[in-house]
Amino acid sequence: MFGQGFVPLTPSTFFHVNFECFWISEDQWQKEIKEKRYRLPSLMSLTDEEQWASVHLGWNEKGLGLAVQVPKPFNQSEYPKIDQGDSVELFIDTRDKSSGYCSQFCHHFFFLPVNVDGIQSGEITRFRSEETHELADGTKLPVNVDWGKLVTLLVWIPATCLHGYDTQQFERLGMTYRINRIGSLSQHLSVVSSEYQVEQQPSMWSSVRLMR
């Protein structure tokens, strides 16, 4: 019926995902963010993927806290080809717009569990219009890794690295993620890389409501 070239789409293609993200304290965020209320929902039924990482997100007026937990140690990271090694990619739109291109409010961050040639984090947003912002300096995005029973990668993204971040005026964010691991398929929140260029499709990212 569809021909040999037909590639079936995952159910996530036909849904726009909305969920809540809760306020977190500035001084205790690394401890609090591991709590269940900060864990992002599993969308395995929509992405048709195995979920092997647990992702947590919290916010306050000064930025965003991110925690990624995996059951096995990370093996190897690569740079600049970050998707060929163990890495976490976070995509944020501070205005949650439905644009089909990356505007000045869109961000593509990456975080590596280990330092590669002096690099462990940064912003690599590729804009498709004249609307741009200065890319965040990786030194302002320190990565901490807890090598416990569950390996936890912790990152604080300050508001100064989030162009247009204004929680008083805008109580929503657009966001998604991609977690890469050697020997495993990447894990996504809602947009699957095999079907779309995640970094260039902010209109398909999930909507996050900032809850106080």
Q: Which fold does the CATH topology refer to?
A: Immunoglobulin-like
- Mean residue pLDDT: 88
* Residues in helices, as a percent range: under 10%
- Report the principal-axis shape: globular
User: CATH top level?
Assistant: Mainly Beta
Terminal-residue CA separation: 50 Å
The domain tally reads: 1
Question: How would you characterize the overall build of this protein?
Answer:
By secondary structure, this protein is mostly beta strands. It has one domain (17-211): Immunoglobulin-like, CATH 2.60.40. The protein has helices spanning 29-32, 44-47; strands at 18-23, 54-60, 63-70, 87-93, 106-116, 119-123, 143-147, 151-158, 172-181, 184-188, 206-211. Strands 1, 2, 3, 4, 5, 6, 7, 8, 9, 10 and 11 form an 11-stranded mixed beta sheet that branches. A hairpin with a 2-residue loop joins strand 9 (172-181) and strand 10. The protein is globular and about 40 Å long. Mean pLDDT is 88; it is low at 6-12.
Essential attributes:
single chain, 212 residues, mainly beta, Immunoglobulin-like, 2 helices, 11 strands, 37% strand
What's this model, at a glance?
This protein has one domain: Immunoglobulin-like (Sandwich). Helix content is about 5%, strand content about 35%. The protein has 2 helices and 11 strands.
